[in-house]
Amino acid sequence: MKLDRIDVRILAELQRNGRITNVELAELVNLSPSPCLMRVKKLQQAGYITGYTAQIDVAKLGETLTVFTEFTLKNHRQIDFARFQDALKNVDSCVECHLVSGGYDYLSKFVTSGIADYQMIIEGLIDRDIGIDKYFSFVVMKTPFVKTQIPLTRLFADRI
User: In what order do the strands lie in the sheet with 65-73?
Assistant: First the structure.
């Protein structure tokens, strides 16, 4: 599916407000409601829209600890990467995992109930022998802001 400017605007608006009505969305992207709804359905079927979620203010629920962790693996075969990724995917406190270039292999983000919880998770991963050579932890002291929207219209303006 080849996207046009209207498709990207639809994605940008849905990213801003996933609960927007089709009529409101159609108005924002200058379409009538029926063609707008058809485009949204096509974007969903093509996998551009992968789901809708609520953004939760976790701080209102209680204290948490956010830790970014750099992991370096002992070996660098495909099977080693797959084993590590599968293990982290099954840790519910691991909310992001990125394979990166540079001095280490992965950068992961954990949100835990505290330092003891984080340490228990890390020790569990090490005990499972999933190929971790070393890891470094960076405890988040404060998060001044988090952006949940990617600037789609700016990023893809010249490609469409």
Answer: 94-99, 106-112, 65-73, 132-139
User: How many whole angstroms separate alpha carbon 4 and alpha carbon 138?
Assistant: 41
Q: What DSSP character marks residue 149?
A: -
Which tens digit of pLDDT belongs to each residue from 79-92?
A: 999 999 999 999 99
- Euclidean distance between CA atoms 137 and 107, whole angstroms: 10
β partners of residue 71: 106, 135
pTM of the model: 0.88
Tokens of 69: 């962790």
3-state secondary structure 33-77: HHHHHHHHHHHHHCCCCCCCCCCCCHHHHCCCEEEEEEEEECCCC
